Amino acid sequence: MEVVYFTLVALLLYAVSDWILQRLEMARGQRFEHRSLIFFGLLLGFALLSFALIRHFGGQ
To answer: Does the reported pTM lie above 0.85?
Structure first.
């Protein structure tokens, strides 16, 4: 069941990271030069945090 949680959270984090990046670019007024690196940083940070929480509350 834990695999299902990880998969669902990963899909949600992808969408949330993209949404946040778009909002940052709108506030800035133009696209970032290294957009993919910023997206990766957002996704990685959220993934590490949320996956650690899933492991903690999942009983492992």
So the answer is: no
Give backbone dihedrals phi and psi of 29, rounded to 5 degrees, phi first. 95, -5
Instruction: Give the chain's domain count.
Output: 1
**Domain range enclosing 6:** 2-57
Cα three-residue angle 24-19-35, rounded to 5 degrees: 55
Q: Distance (Å, rounded) from C-alpha 7 to C-alpha 34?
A: 27
DSSP 32: -
Can you give the pLDDT at residue 6? Answer: 85
C-alpha distance from residue 20 to each of 3, 7, 13, 25 (Å): 25, 20, 10, 9
